[in-house]
Amino acid sequence: MNERLVDIQTASGALDTFVVHPGDDRQCPPVVIYMDVWGLREELFDIARRIATVGYYCVVPNFYYRQGKIRNEHRNDKNQMITLDRLDEGRRAQVLAPLSRLSDSMVVEDTGNVLNFIDADRSARPNSAVGCIGYCMGGRHVFRVTAHYPDRFKASVSLHGTELVTDSADSPHLDVLKATGEIYCGFGEKDRHTPPSVIAALNRALQSGGVRYRYEVHRDADHGYALPDRDVYDKHCANRDWELVFALFHRQLRPYST
Question: Which domains does the chain have, with CATH numbers?
Fold first, then answer.
């Protein structure tokens, strides 16, 4: 495997990004990982490595770059990352502060620069279909970029996404009706961010809009269940997601045989 940290130049500065791909001469289909509220860390890099091992070119951009290299990790005595709802008020506010200064439109704009970088890298398949996976706020960002770049993002995955359905006219679940590829969403049964009413509203919208969409509600899983370092990690549910995600990537991105 080849991996490195690079700076992608944007109008707002240098977007630091983790890049990993197979260590041979193949031009691999690209996948973008959209971070959660915690920011970049080794946990997300390991997820990227897992994707890359089966023939993909994977990037993990730091969308907080306008605010610096923000890294938040609070761990318990088992060395697990403590989920946000279990933090005290002060530490919770610290984690959430950068989110208030990051808009969906910033992520959409930055994604254009990320796609240009990918297309210029000889290790990535140029101007090809792109996959994306987003966690937490990144799940919403997946909806936004899929809507804005429907000719590129063909395999879109939102895992325990937040604010997917709102009352606004440009709610993410309505915006993403522009999708031309496939979408998969994984939800936790206990996730307060996606109660049954939200899941049902999303399903109705995407089905009526003709979007190729599949979702699973994982029994007893909570918000953050898919992240392997988290204290709420559910291995069984996460592996079920991977089963469906890799099948989706194979259909839409057509990786080379490994």
Answer: 2-253 (3.40.50.1820)
Which residues does 159 contact at the CB level (< 8 Å), separation at least 6? Answer: 133, 134, 135, 139, 185, 186, 226, 241
Q: Which of 140, 143, 219, 218 is nearest to 181 (CA)?
A: 143
Residues 6+ apart with CB under 8 A from 201: 165, 173
- What residues contact residue 160 under an 8 Å CB cut-off, 6+ apart? 135, 136, 139, 186, 187, 188, 191, 193, 194, 223, 224, 225, 226
Indicate left, alpha or beta for 81 from its phi (over 0: left) and psi (-120 to 50: alpha): beta
List pLDDT tens digits, range 41-100. Answer: 999 999 999 999 999 999 999 999 999 888 788 888 898 888 888 888 888 888 888 888
Whole-model pTM: value is 0.95
User: What are the backbone dihedrals phi and psi of residue 214, each rounded to the nearest 5 degrees, phi first?
Assistant: -140, 145
Give the integer Cα–Cα distance in Å for 229 and 73.
10
pLDDT given for residue 98 in this prediction? 84
Give per-residue pLDDT as tens, 104-124.
Answer: 999 999 999 999 999 999 999
Sheet holding 2-10, edge to edge: 2-10, 13-21, 57-61, 30-34, 130-135, 153-159, 182-188, 212-218
Contacts of 239 (CB under 8 A, 6+ apart): none
